[in-house]
Specification:
The complex is a heterodimer of chains A (317) and B (369).
Chain A lengths: L4 E10 L8 E11 L4 E6 L5 H8 L7 E6 L2 E2 L4 H10 E4 L3 H4 L6 H11 L6 H11 L5 H5 L8 H13 L5 E5 L7 H18 L2 E5 L3 H7 L2 E6 L2 E7 H6 L4 H8 L32 H6 L3 H4 L13 E3 L6
Parallel strand pairs in A: 3-8, 3-9, 6-7, 7-8
Antiparallel strand pairs in A: 1-2, 1-4, 4-5, 9-10, 10-11
Chain B lengths: L44 E12 L2 E13 L4 E6 L5 H8 L7 E9 L2 E2 L5 H11 E4 L13 H12 L4 H14 L16 H13 L5 E5 L7 H18 L2 E5 L3 H7 L2 E6 L2 E7 H6 L4 H8 L23 H9 L24 E4 L2 E3 L2 H5 L4
Parallel strand pairs in B: 3-8, 3-9, 6-7, 7-8
Antiparallel strand pairs in B: 1-2, 1-4, 4-5, 9-10, 10-12, 11-12
Classes of the chains: A alpha/beta (317), B alpha/beta (369).
One adenosine-5'-triphosphate sits at the interface of chains B and A.
Chain lengths: 317, 369
C-alpha cells in the first residue's frame, strides 16, 4: 500500500541574505508515513523540522525533491492545495502566530469547514472539535478571542481547528509543547484514539522524546537538515546507534547515563560542514579520531519504513 | 483586598509571611519556622494574597484567587500547574502587565514597594531595569520588520549609558550565550526557527541585567540539549549575580533542575509548594501526584503507546466564583482520594512537611506525612 505521506530527496533552501550562503534548512530527506501510522520527528532547535512540516502540507515549495500524498506528487495550484488540505491538516507551531487576534474561537475553528463548504450543522461540528481538544464546556470558550485565553488554551484551539475537518492525516508541529502533562496526556490519548477508530495517520514534530514514546510507531531524528537515524521507537530510543541520538537521550533526566552535552558552534544550515555534518560536535569521532568523518560524505538515508533502524554514520551501522 | 476575600486566618502559617528567619537555608516561600523577631531585611519580592479577575461585561473569570509567596535574591521559584490554572495571569499581574479587563487586588512588594499601587512611571522603570519578563508565546512577539540585533540593542541603548558599539557587542555576546550565532544579528525574526526566536527573547530579557527575571514557559520550543544550555546560563546568573528567577513551565524536570522551590497551581491557587525535588519525588497533593504520573518515562512499558492524562475538567468560571465564596476543594470532582469532607470544608495551605505546604484536607490526617 502506498504511504499516505512521503517525501523523496526533499530539499528546501532559503535564499541567502547579504553575501551569506543560502540556508539549506532541509537538505535531502526521505520519509514515509503509512496509513494509520504515527511518526515522530525529533531534533535540535533549528534543525529544519518546521520547514519539513510546512513542505509536507505545501506551505513551502521544495527547492529539490518531491512531496507525495497517497502516492501522487503534490500539486501547487490553489485548487490542488485546497483539495489536498481537505484531508491533510497542519497544526502550526506557536499558536500565538497561528491565530488571528481579531477572530473569536468559534470563527477560528469554523474557518476550515467553511472554506470546504461543510456548513451543515457547523455549530455542532465546531463545538465537538473544541470539546475533543479539551476546551470544555465549548460554549465557555467559543465566544472568546485569543487574548482572553491561556497559552495552552490557544494551542488547543489550533488543534480543534485541525480536527474540525475530520482529516485523515495530521502534520502537527509541536502540538502539545505548551501543555502541562495532564492535559497533554489527554490530547495524545485523543490522537491515538482517532488513529485506532478512524485510521488517522500523523507526523508529529516534537523536541520531546517522551512524546515519541507515548504515541509514535516510528521516529526520525533530524540533525542539520538531514535525518540521521530512523526506525521503530523501541529500536531508536532504547538502542540508539547514531552518536547524536545517543547524546540527545543522555541529557534526559532519567537516562541513567552521564549527560553528553554537545559543545562547539551551534549548527548553521548556511554553513553545513563537509564529510559527516555532525563531525564538529561528535563525541564518538573525537574519541576515535576517525578521518573518514571529516572527509567522506554520507549517503542520504532511504527512510525505508520496513527497516527497524537506519543510521547515517561511518562508524556505526 | 477585602477582609471577606480572605479564606485563611491570619495566624495560620501561610506561604508568604515575609517573616522567614533569615538564618534558614534559602526559602523562596514559606511561613514555617516563623520567629517572633521576624527576619532581617525584607525579601526582594513579597506577594500577598494576589487575586485577579477578568471582567468582560457580564462574564467574570476569577483566574487567580489568592496567591502568596516570597522570593529573595539568588532564589528560584518554579511554577507548574494545569493549563488555564492562572500561572501567566499571576506572573504578569506582579508587574501590572495585564489587560485593562483584569481586576487585581492584594500586595506585590518589590524591594518593599507595592507595585500594585505605585505610579506608572515608576513601574515602567522597574520593568526595564529591575525586573524583566519573558512572555509566553514570545516567539510571535518580536517586531517583524526590525532585525533581531537592533531589537536587542534598543533596551541597552535606552537604559544603560553606553554607545552603539558597546551595545552591539553586548547583544552579540547575549545571542551567542543562548546558542544563536551572533553573525545572524542582521536577520529578521521570520528567518529564525521557533526555538531560535524563543532564545532571542531570553537574550533580550537579560539585556539590561535585571535583578528579577519572570520567565513564562521560556523553553517550550527547545529540545533537551539547547534547553540544558539555556538553563545553565540562567543558573549561572542566579549563582554569580544573585538574580531571582520565577520560572513557569509545564516541564517538571526543567523546574526541578532549575528551581530550588516549586509551586503547583490549580484553579487559581497554589495547591502545593515546597522544595522542588521533594515535591516531585513525594507529592502530597493529589493534583501534584497526577501531574507527576502523567510524565512519560522512556523505556517504561506501562507508558508505551499509553499516554497518561488526568480526565475531567477544571472548574468553570461560575464554579470558581462559587468556590471562592464558599467551602470545598476545587480539585474534588477529579480527585481520586476525595472524602465527603472535601465538599464541605474550607481547604487552605497547611504544613505538609518541613518547608512545605499543601492545600489538601488529607494532609491534616497526616496521610503521607
Ligand atoms: N483577558 C482575559 N479575559 C478572560 N479570561 C482570561 C483572559 N486571560 C486569561 N483568561 C483566563 O484565565 C485563566 C488563567 O489563564 P492563564 O493564562 O493565567 O493560565 P496559565 O496557567 O498560564 O495556562 P497555560 O499553561 O495554558 O498558559 C484561563 O482560564 C483563561 O482562559
Ligand atoms: N526564511 C528563512 N530564511 C533564512 N533562514 C531560515 C528561514 N526560516 C528558517 N530558517 C533557518 O532554517 C533552519 C531551520 O528552521 P526550522 O524552523 O525548520 O527549524 P526547526 O527544526 O523547526 O526548529 P525549532 O525546533 O526551533 O522550531 C534554522 O536554522 C532557521 O534559522
Ligand atoms: S560519521 Fe563520524 S562524525 Fe559522523 S556521527 Fe558517525 S562517528 Fe560521528
Ligand atoms: S482536599 Fe480532598 S478533594 Fe481536595 S485534593 Fe485533598 S483529598 Fe482531594
Ligand atoms: Mg520549529
Ligand atoms: Mg500561561
Amino acid at each position: 500500500m502506498k504511504p499516505v505521506l512521503e517525501v523523496r530527496d526533499l530539499m528546501v533552501t532559503y535564499p541567502p541574505r547579504r553575501g551569506a550562503a543560502p540556508a539549506r534548512a532541509v537538505d535531502g530527506v526521505n520519509l514515509q508515513v503509512r496509513r494509520g501510522e504515527i511518526v515522530a520527528l525529533v531534533g535540535e532547535s533549528g534543525c529544519g523540522k518546521s520547514t519539513l512540516a510546512r513542505a509536507l502540507v505545501g506551505l513551502v515549495k521544495p527547492t529539490g525533491g518531491q512531496v507525495l500524498g497517497d502516492g501522487e506528487p503534490l500539486g501547487y495550484s490553489a485548487a490542488a492545495l485546497k483539495a489536498y488540505r481537505r484531508h491533510t491538516q497542519l497544526v502550526l507551531q506557536d499558536p500565538g502566530g497561528a491565530l488571528n487576534p481579531r477572530q473569536n474561537v468559534f470563527d477560528a475553528v469554523a474557518e476550515g469547514p467553511r472554506l470546504h463548504g461543510l456548513t451543515d450543522r457547523l455549530g455542532e461540528r465546531v463545538h465537538a472539535a473544541l470539546a475533543r481538544a479539551g476546551l470544555r464546556p465549548p460554549e465557555e470558550f467559543a465566544g472568546r478571542f485569543p487574548h482572553e485565553m491561556s497559552g495552552g488554551q490557544q494551542q488547543r484551539v489550533v488543534i480543534a481547528g485541525a480536527l474540525a475537518l475530520d482529516p485523515s492525516v495530521i502534520v502537527a508541529d509541536e502540538p502539545v509543547a505548551s501543555l502541562d502533562a495532564s492535559v497533554r496526556g489527554e490530547i495524545l490519548k485523543l490522537i491515538l484514539e482517532l488513529r485506532d477508530s478512524l485510521g488517522l495517520s500523523a507526523l508529529v514534530v516534537s523536541h520531546d522524546l517522551g512524546l515519541a514514546w507515548n504515541i509514535a510507531d516510528r521516529v526520525a531524528v533530524m540533525y542539520l537538515g538531514r535525518i540521521v537515524e530512523t526506525g521503530t521507537v523501541e529500536e531508536v530510543l532504547l538502542r540508539p546507534k547514531h552518536p547524536y541520538t545517543r547524546a540527545l537521550l543522555s541529557v534526559l533526566p532519567d537516562s541513567g547515563e552521564r549527560p553528553v552535552l554537545l559543545t562547539g558552534e551551534p549548527p548553521d544550515p548556511a554553513a553545513v560542514p563537509g564529510g559527516c555534518r555532525f563531525h564538529p560536535r561528535c563525541p564518538l569521532r573525537a574519541a576515535e579520531q576517525d578521518t573518514l568523518c571529516d572527509s567522506r560524505d554520507l549517503p542520504v538515508l532511504t527512510g525505508d519504513p520496513s527497516r527497524s533502524s537506519l543510521a547515517a554514520c561511518h562508524l556505526v551501522h | 483586598m477585602t477582609a471577606r476575600d480572605r479564606t485563611r486566618e491570619p495566624e495560620t502559617p501561610v506561604a508568604a509571611s515575609g517573616q522567614d528567619p533569615a538564618s534558614e537555608t534559602p526559602v523562596a516561600a514559606s511561613g514555617q519556622g516563623r520567629t517572633p523577631e521576624g527576619r532581617s531585611g525584607t525579601p526582594m519580592l513579597d506577594v500577598r494574597d494576589l487575586r485577579v479577575t477578568y471582567r468582560n461585561g457580564e462574564r467574570a473569570v476569577p483566574a487567580v484567587r489568592g496567591v502568596s509567596f516570597t522570593l529573595d535574591r539568588g532564589q528560584t521559584l518554579g511554577v507548574a500547574g494545569e493549563s488555564g490554572s492562572g500561572k501567566s495571569t499571576m506572573a504578569l499581574g506582579l508587574l501590572r502587565l495585564l489587560a485593562p479587563s483584569a481586576q487585581v487586588s492584594g500586595e506585590v512588594l518589590f524591594e518593599g514597594e507595592d507595585l500594585l499601587t505605585t505610579r506608572w512611571a515608576r513601574l515602567r522603570a522597574v520593568r526595564w531595569s529591575a525586573a524583566s519578563v519573558v512572555f509566553q508565546g514570545a516567539m510571535s512577539a518580536l517586531n517583524p520588520v526590525r532585525t533581531i540585533g537592533e531589537q536587542i540593542c534598543e533596551p541597552i541603548l535606552l537604559h544603560e549609558k553606553v554607545g552603539q558599539r558597546a551595545a552591539r557587542r553586548r547583544a552579540a555576546e547575549l545571542l551567542d550565550s543562548v546558542g544563536v550565532p551572533s553573525r545572524r544579528s542582521g536577520s529578521y525574526p521570520h528567518e529564525f526557527s521557533g526555538g531560535q526566536r524563543q532564545r532571542i527573547m531570553i537574550a533580550m530579557s537579560l539585556a539590561c541585567r535585571p535583578d528579577l527575571i519572570i520567565a513564562d514557559e521560556p523553553t517550550t520550543a527547545l529540545d533537551v540539549m539547547v534547553q540544558a544550555q539555556v538553563l545553565e546560563l540562567l543558573g549561572e546568573l542566579v549563582r554569580e549575580s544573585g538574580i531571582g528567577v520565577i520560572m513557569i513551565s509545564h516541564d517538571l524536570s526543567v523546574l526541578s533542575h532549575m528551581c530550588e522551590r516549586l509551586a503547583v497551581m490549580y484553579a487559581g491557587r497554589i495547591a502545593e509548594i515546597g522544595p522542588s525535588r521533594q515535591l516531585i519525588a513525594e507529592p502530597r497533593h493529589p493534583y501534584t501526584r497526577a501531574l507527576g504520573r502523567a510524565f512519560p518515562t522512556i523505556g517504561d512499558p506501562a507508558s508505551r503507546l499509553a499516554p497518561a492524562g488526568l480526565p475531567g475538567d477544571p472548574p468553570t468560571p461560575p464554579e470558581l466564583a462559587r468556590l471562592s465564596e464558599g467551602r470545598g476543594c476545587a480539585f474534588e470532582p477529579r480527585c481520586s482520594e476525595a472524602v465527603a469532607a472535601c465538599r464541605t470544608e474550607t481547604v487552605e495551605l497547611w504544613p505538609s512537611g518541613p518547608r512545605r505546604e499543601a492545600a489538601c484536607l488529607r494532609v491534616l490526617e497526616g496521610s503521607g506525612t
